[in-house]
Specification:
Helix content is 37%, strand content 28%. With 285 residues, the chain is α+β, with helices and mostly antiparallel strands. The chain has one domain (16-284): Yope Regulator, Chain: A (2-Layer Sandwich). The strands form two sheets. Strands 1-2-3-4-6-5 form a six-stranded antiparallel beta sheet. Helix 3 (80-86) crosses helix 7, helix 4 packs antiparallel against helix 5 (135-146) and helix 6 packs across helix 8 (264-284). The two termini are 33 Å apart.
């Protein structure tokens, strides 16, 4: 027997908090919701096949991991640098690529659920529609999510409730954080790796986590092969985002958390995925 056990990483500790959470029967409730919003879909043995304004979204619920995941192929989708820039947008869905086919881009999401949260599911579908060119469908889904009382007042209420829920979840998970006094809805969260910036979108429906990691400016660092690798690695709940800062590229690991139904499980998933992807980047060199 080993005398010393290897200390579990912070990502592993966060993942452990999710293992005992009761999960809903998402498949039983997803179909009626899709019917309600007029999205054609059929259930197959491997999951759901959903028509997102002409694009085919494959959607699977995993009770084991408590995740509703989805992805849709979008062809090339754009240049790698542009796809990585989009990944810093505060949306539940993001851009990635298959390692087997670096020319094929996908739009994907991974939504943790402890109950069937209607608003969060609609928000995920809205994000997919927005990234695949279905702007009219995205607007319709947003209206369905916000309801007849939607508007600026509803967004202000969502923002206030989102701030309170996110702050409470951080405290329950033992993640030290300070909300910026000059910027309500923006936090600096301490993790073992350093600082994660968390920002609540103005609409009050998404919290975006961002952790900057060192990124070189050599020809290898900025090569098409490296950019493709960043996209290929962005396929499991968190993603890489790349943006010019002061004339040089800045690399972030990011994860988005839905505010509807936000609780410790969703926040733990977001931070765990972010930290795991950051560690993966460290180990790739």
């Amino acid at each position: 027997m080993a005398l010393f056990r290897r200390r579990r990483s912070q990502a592993q500790l966060l993942a452990a908090t999710r293992s005992s959470v009761q999960r809903p029967d998402v498949d039983a409730e997803l179909g009626p919701l899709l019917d309600e919003v007029g999205i054609p879909a059929r259930r197959e043995p491997g999951g759901w096949v959903i028509d997102i304004d002409g694009a085919t979204l494959l959607c699977v619920w995993s009770a084991e991991y408590g995740l509703l995941g989805g992805q849709v192929e979008v062809g090339r989708g754009g240049e790698p640098a542009e796809l990585l820039r989009r990944n810093l947008d505060p949306m539940l869905a993001w851009c990635a690529r298959y390692s087997a086919d670096p020319e094929s881009a996908i739009v994907t999401f991974a939504l943790p659920l402890t109950t069937f949260e209607r608003g969060a599911v609609l928000l995920a579908l809205e994000s997919v529609a927005g990234l695949t060119g279905g702007e009219a469908l995205a607007a319709r889904l947003r209206d369905a999510r916000m309801g007849p009382g939607g508007g600026e007042l509803a967004e202000q209420t969502a923002e206030r409730e989102g701030r309170a829920a996110f702050t409470a979840a951080l405290a329950e998970l033992g993640l030290p954080a300070a909300e910026r006094p000059e910027t309500p809805g923006a936090w600096r969260v301490e993790v073992d790796r350093g600082i994660v910036e968390a920002v609540l979108r103005d609409a009050g429906d998404v919290v975006l986590l961002m952790h900057e990691i060192p990124y070189g400016t050599s020809e290898k660092d900025t090569s098409p092969e490296m950019l493709s690798w960043l996209l290929e690695s962005s396929d499991n709940g968190a993603r890489f985002g790349l943006v010019p800062v002061g004339g040089s590229p800045a690399l972030f690991v990011t994860a988005a958390i839905a505010v509807p139904g936000l609780g410790p499980d969703a926040v733990a998933h977001g931070f765990e995925r972010l930290l795991t992807l950051a560690d993966h980047y460290d180990g790739s060199g």
